[in-house]
Amino acid sequence: ETGVTQSPTHLIKTRGQQVTLRCSSQSGHNTVSWYQQALGQGPQFIFQYYREEENGRGNFPPRFSGLQFPNYSSELNVNALELDDSALYLCASSLNPTGYGYTFGSGTRLTVV
Amino acid sequence: KNEVEQSPQNLTAQEGEFITINCSYSVGISALHWLQQHPGGGIVSLFMLSSGKKKHGRLIATINIQEKHSSLHITASHPRDSAVYICAVSGGGATNKLIFGTGTLLAVQP
Questions:
Q1: Nearest CA-CA partner of B41 in A93, A92, A68, A27
Q2: pLDDT tens-digit series, residues B63-92
Q3: Yes or no, beta carbons of A56 and B41 under 8 Å apart
Q4: Environment class of residue A14 by beta-carbon count within 10 Å: exposed (0-12), middle (13-18) or buried (19+)?
Q5: Which end of chain B is more exposed for a tag (fewer CB within 10 A), N or C?
Q6: What is the phi/psi pair of residue B91, to 5°?
Q7: Which residues does chain A have within 8 Å of residue B49's beta carbon, measured at their own beta carbons?
């Protein structure tokens, strides 16, 4: 049984650029949630994907968008990067949207300069 | 005021000490999670609780639903326990999203 894999592990981008982060869900999990963790803060919910559809969204602007693929892997896309987007981006998969057990990836550390 | 509050924010202990980390929440929940985050970011799920008490090795987690409070205890602490411990609650609803506390940074010294 594989866990959740995120790529890349680290990334440096310039303000205004676009970035795509990737997450593979744990085998058997059809739901992926994305979180942003700023330095020294707890993670904040960005959105959740379930069966290739967005299933809920936190307080993040539309330049944060996502996709989920038929194999339940997921992408997080951020357009027009801002310095404040620098953070650790965490992906968590679960059996379904109301499943309480989460498996987290190791995160992608994004630095915007 | 954050919906999930943890205390203390920072904790330094000597190896072998008994450690308690507290979590209070102000929202209705379907479950409470204790998570461990090591430097570099990866999060490991330690416990998921909706009532009572759970034990795994040297770790014990308790929850009091009426008081909206949970504690994580580490017995016979060891330097390898050094990490950030995060309390998070599942609020239910369509996404059952997690609402996180800001974490407790634990350093166990040999």
A1: A92
A2: 999 999 999 999 999 999 999 999 999 877
A3: no
A4: exposed
A5: N
A6: -90, 0
A7: none
Closest by CA to A45, choosing from B97, B81, B19, B14, is: B97
Minimal Cα–Cα distance from B96 to chain A, Å?
5
pLDDT of amino acid A99: 66
pLDDT (tens digit per residue) in A9-66: 999 999 999 999 999 999 889 999 999 999 888 899 999 999 999 999 999 999 999 9
Peptide bond before residue B39 is cis, with ω within 30 degrees of 0: no
Contact B13, B19 (CB under 8 A): yes
Other CB atoms within 10 Å distance of the CB of residue B85 = 23
Residue A1 has pLDDT above 70, yes or no: no
- Amino acid B94: pLDDT: 75
Distances in whole angstroms, Cα of residue A65 to Cα of each of A109, B14, B52, B76? 18, 45, 39, 45
Q: How far is B40 from chain A (nearest CA, A)?
A: 8
pLDDT at A64: 98
d(CA B95, CA B92): 7
pLDDT band at B96, cuts 50/70/90?
Answer: confident
Contact B102 A42 (CB under 8 A): yes
Residues of B in contact with A94 (CB under 8 A): 96
